[in-house]
Amino acid sequence: MAPPHDGKTAAVFEEESTPERRISSVLFVIAMQTEASPLVDKFRLIEEAESVFPEGFPWVRYYGKYKDLNINIVCPGKDKALGVDSVGTVPASLLTYASVQTLRPDIIINAGTSGGFKAKGASIGDVFVASHVAFHDRRNPLPKRDIYCIGTRQAFSTPNLVKELNLKVGKLSTGNSLDMSPQDAAGIISNDATVKDMEGAAVAYVTDLLKVPTIFLKAVTDIVDGDKPTPEEFLLNLATVSAALDRAATQVVDFINGKSLSDL
């Protein structure tokens, strides 16, 4: 893997980042190519020919300039054996760590689709900014380890962005399965989640360690507590909801352009 551009560590980079300094670099971490493609087209990004990531990794990077911002979109790519998107917490955490170390973004946007709960006010096509993220499929009843496994973290606060763009806000719960077991359901309820995904809390774990502000932008493809099978509803709505995610993400980037972290 290539080192940070001037050889400095991520920690030193963080010390130089101040809330008042204008944002110049935005990194999108996106799990699926279908979710990323509309944004790649919107920002007219170029796919990297010679990867900055370790040889043999399927990770994909798109980069370019949009307005005053350097934009990078990274995806974990396709599983080499099966050819499907490398979704889930392990690829997301590895990719996020490597991307921060290499690209040194001022802010990260973890954008993607998610399941939503109608009991919490979610509908198909809604786009939420997560206020908090947590895991629902890591369980350990031992003292303190139970809290560690849930791993609740507050997302970077963006009150001005949320107000200006009139975005919905809710809590995000993360697990490694598309379906929902009874144990997972109990965890999601305990997390008071409005939306559920397969990457967010893993991204948050890494960005919290590296002290990179992170926005979680999640668009609802399926209603988990609805009457339709989740896989069927997810596939049915994926393309349409990805377009809604694209519109919301573009609005977010337009709002960030020319601003500092403290303006968000």
UniProtKB/TrEMBL annotation:
Transmembrane segments: none
The keyword DNA repair is annotated on this UniProt entry: no
Keywords assigned by UniProt, alphabetized: Glycosidase, Hydrolase
Principal EC category: hydrolase
The Nucleoside phosphorylase domain, residue ranges: 27-254
Keyword Transmembrane set for record: no
MF terms in GO: methylthioadenosine nucleosidase activity
UniProt xrefs under CDD domains: MTAN
Gene3D superfamilies: Nucleoside phosphorylase domain (3.40.50.1580)
InterPro entries cross-referenced by the UniProt entry: MTAN (IPR044580), Nucleoside_phosphorylase_d (IPR000845), Nucleoside_phosphorylase_sf (IPR035994)
Entry EC number(s): 3.2.2.16
Pfam families: PNP_UDP_1
Protein name as it appears in the record: Mutanase
Organism (species): Castilleja foliolosa
